[in-house]
Design a protein that fits this description.
This protein is mainly beta. The protein is 8% helix and 27% strand. It contains two helices and five strands. Strand 1 and strand 2 (22-29) form a beta hairpin. It is globular. The protein starts with 12 loop residues before the first strand and ends in a 16-residue tail after the last helix.
């Protein structure tokens, strides 16, 4: 059995390497766990390897807020010190402090 270690953690702010958005990690899949249709909608030359962590993000860009599902290879840590303005952050996390959002609920 292969062990996968996620590079980013819950509450951490990350930025996409290729697209202009950033977000807060709220869940991590050890490997791809979305639909085949979602995966195949990505242009073949841009499709990430499925055998890596994928992150669920409360994401934002200049125009909107949304939930994103992104492979680890397409993310970098965001050290800007700027908070994320996603309206659902308060449902999962406490106040922004020291560059991260602390969990506000108990995990199982």
């Amino acid at each position: 059995m292969q062990t996968t270690r996620a590079k980013y953690h819950l509450g951490q702010i990350v930025r996409h390497k290729k697209h202009p958005f950033r977000g807060v990690v709220f869940d991590v899949d050890a490997m791809f766990s979305n639909s085949d249709a979602w995966y195949e909608a990505i242009p073949e030359e841009s499709r990430p390897d499925k055998d890596q962590p994928f992150y669920h993000l409360l994401a934002e860009n200049e125009e909107s807020y949304y939930v994103a599902y992104v492979s680890e290879q397409n993310l970098v840590a965001d050290y800007s010190g700027e908070p994320v303005g996603h309206p659902d952050l308060d449902d999962l996390f406490g106040d922004f402090e020291d560059g991260v959002y602390p969990l506000q609920f108990q995990l199982n």
